[in-house]
Amino acid sequence: MKSFAGHTGGTIHVQLSADGSSWYDAGTSAFGNATEVSTAFAPAIGQLPTPAPTPAPTPAMGMVSAAGDPHLVNQYGQRFDLGQAGVHVLLHIPKGARPKATYFHVAADAQRLGNTCADLYFQNINITGKWVKMRGGLQFSVNAKTRAKWMHFGRIQLKVVHGHTIDEKKYLNIFVKGIGKERLPVGGLLGGDDHTLAAKVSEDCKRTTWL
After folding, report:
1. For residues 171 and 149, what is the distance between their CA atoms, to the nearest angstrom?
2. pLDDT band at 196, cuts 50/70/90?
3. Among 26, 37, 189, 198, which is most exposed with the fewest C-beta within 10 angstroms?
4. Residues 18 and 117 both lie in one domain
5. Which residues fall within 8 angstroms of residue 33, CB to CB, at 6 or more apart?
6. Alpha helices per DSSP H over the chain
7. Which residues are CB-contacts of 125 (< 8 A; sequence separation ≥ 6)?
């Protein structure tokens, strides 16, 4: 039980919940959340426990991917579609590292191949970083057919798979395992980077489609 001085000079007895998120006044039977009691009894704010912060998303142990036109699943299991054409960073380890300090970097070029804003497909994928042993990195293109196989980079496994639509539009899919086992922070759209802007359909596409 906490006692606070009210605005009228009296004493109000407030019972806080175990996590500090709500309160109950035994005298008036009033109740509310911790923000309300902090506002009502400003002089006593310092006596209130700080509510626990919202926990950060936990990386999933499953596969992350970017497939089709393209549908993406990141390390938190969040699903979203790409809405912007151009080059996108799918993975960057460690997150925020400069090029010379980067162990693993995956970038993909998405191009619009149809008449709708959703007709985006990956045409090229480049993989670079210290974990990539091949000089100059690895390059994948819709115009150079390669056998799909799992490749190992540190704790990460990655596979690029060629695909095509029913009307023969070629594109690349990418599948990645082991993100949840990686001890370094993972950036990129398939990692922990924000995807809000990348998933937003560009205004240019909206105008073109409308015309």
Report:
1. 17
2. very high
3. 26
4. no
5. 21, 22, 23
6. 34-40, 196-199, 203-210
7. 106, 107, 108, 109, 139, 140, 160, 172, 174
Mean pLDDT, residues 186-210? 83
100 shares its domain with 187: yes
Q: How many residues does the chain have?
A: 211
Q: Total domain count for the chain?
A: 2
More confident residue, 163 or 48: 163
**92 plus 158 within the same structural domain:** yes
For residue 33, what are the domain limits? Answer: 2-47
**pLDDT per residue over 69-79, tens digit each?**
899 999 999 99
- Yes or no: say if 16 and 34 are a contact pair by the CB < 8 Å rule: yes
Provide mean pLDDT across the span 108-112. 96
d(Cα 134, Cα 104) in Å, to the nearest integer?
A: 13
| Residue type, position 191, single letter | G
Place of tokens 């926990």: 55
Q: What is the CATH number of the domain that holds 97?
A: 3.40.1000
Read off the pLDDT of residues 19-37 as tens digits, 9 standing for 90 and up: 555 545 555 555 555 444 4
pTM above 0.85, yes or no: no
What gap in Å lies between CA 106 and CA 30, rounded to an integer? 56
HSE on the CB side for 81, CA within 13 Å? 10
| Strand ranges inside 6-63, DSSP E | 11-16, 22-25, 30-33
H or E segment and range at residue 127: strand 120-128
